[in-house]
Amino acid sequence: MVKKKIKTAVFISGKGSNLKNLIKFSKSKNSPITVNLIFSNNKHAKGLLYGYKHKIEKKVFSFKNIKITEKKILNILFKKEIKLICLAGFMKLLSKNFIEKFNGKIINIHPSLLPRFKGLDTHRRVLQSKENFSGCTVHYVSSKLDSGKIIIQKKIKIKKKDTVRSLQKRILKEEHKIYPKAIIKILN
Fold this sequence. Notes:
Helices cover 36% and strands 23% of the residues. It has 188 residues and is of the alpha/beta class. The chain has a seven-stranded mixed β-sheet.
């Protein structure tokens, strides 16, 4: 018997390379998910183009009034029977109330080895701190920024010649590998 795939929403704010990767992954035979909805807080997010390309429903919200926006998003998520939310470069914090409504069903990818270097501008801060290693983390979303339980991490050695851009590119490649692994880990 074929296992039914879990309906998933992906939240983005920018280029959407992790979204593109999750869409590709969702179409593979061993994937436990389908990407059914894309949410963005940025109507100019390049990642929205993947939604058009793959005929996935997209919704853009301004987040000016977080309470009202989150209420609308939750209504859509429940109506569409979404069971998992993947944050992929989503640059807004979700409220404690929103997170509790989707308790244990929201995951995020972050470009550092959490709990170190939470928040923004990660690669610059890692290089300034003269770290030997960096990496990426998939974690559950909690009401505290980048503090939820870690699902999976990938560590990479920082090279002497690394710049913010080169480190970002190398870590992004690893993000594309571990996000699907984390999804398989929590859903299988």
